[in-house]
Specification:
This protein is mainly α and 414 residues long. Helix content is 73%, strand content 1%. It has 16 helices and 2 strands. Helix 2 runs antiparallel to helix 8, helix 5 runs antiparallel to helix 8 and helix 10 packs parallel to helix 12. The protein is globular. The two termini are 28 Å apart. The C terminus is likely disordered.
Length: 414
Amino acid sequence: MIGDSIRQMPLAEARKLPFHRQPVFLLFLMAFAMPIAFATWSALLNNFVVEAASFTGVEIGWLHTVREIPGFLAVTVIFVIIFVREQVLGLVSLVLLGGASALTAYFPSVGGIMMLTLISSIGYHYYETVNQSLQLQWIEIEKAPQVLGWLTAAGSFASLIAYGALVLTWKAFDLSYTFVYMASGGITVAIAVFAFFYFPQFEAPNPQIKKMVLRRRYWLYYALQFVSGARRQIFLVFAAFMMVEHFGFEVHEVTSLFLINYVANMVLAPLIGKAIHRYGERNMLVVEYTGLSLVFLAYGGIYYFGWGVAVGAALYVLNHLFFSMAFAIKTYFQKIADPADIAPTAAVAFTINHIAAVFLPALLGYLWIVSEIGVFVLAAGMAVTSLVLSMLIPRHPTPGRETIFARGRAAPAE
């Protein structure tokens, strides 16, 4: 298996190492490295595709459909980890993400942008799948909400650095897309290579099942993932695109908006983790989905009532903050899962999360041309669906109490 040449270390032994060599520090380093490339790519994307390749809503929809194909195929991670350790695969995926992002500006055409987006997306989605698995295996259940909150804050801090640098230097130094993409992607690659050689191979106490796992008792987790993926795509594809197309935002203005998002996220994510630990996944998800329902309806109001740029910017920030509560779905699954199911179920769930993402952006690109309001009303409907599903989570989920309908029943042997 690839990675065997690096020293292996049981998780219990690894926790005795200095903090900068422990598994949780590697998780923080990876959480920091990924957004350096991905956040920069996202911040520049809408302006780059409009200026370089004259994208409209149709092309941007197809681009995000292409971007989500690897997410739909994330289940193939199950077969890759037969030959490659999860820790190694996560770092190799970061190299792929950073390398492809670095080359983006060298292919300023519809075909070139689509090709590099697909390559970087393979790295991104494999990384996210493996990273989620490693988080749930390496972090104790009782500490998971707080640690995941801090990991989210670390990613936000990295995004903050990337966006802050763009805001301060884009116009002041007349930076090019080529320089910024190369610099950000190169940093991500460098961190991943360093982490590969610096850390031992950490061995979790529960060997992971290396085949596809679908369990009836996880049905609510699968449903939450499906609707979350569909709803999130509308935000990722069309909310920022609206700021460019409808309000005429330039690169530094879009980046400033992202900057506000991540400052708020960096401050609030640890507090959200504490709130999940105190109030439970169900209550926090109810808050998230209620807020998202109202925000998406208000997006439609921008077109219907002619609300101005300040409202659009405020809604974008609120939308992002509500999404930051979504790691409650991870901790819900951690509480109900068989420890050996974490890696295969993370891969299956990531694929489920991206089922709608493969076709929804392209279809909604055509709807966008006819009715922007219709796109956001559809997103609000998905948020309401998520709200109803979240109410089925028990206050204290455990194996055998995965939903409110399973209260008190022993976990089935599957």
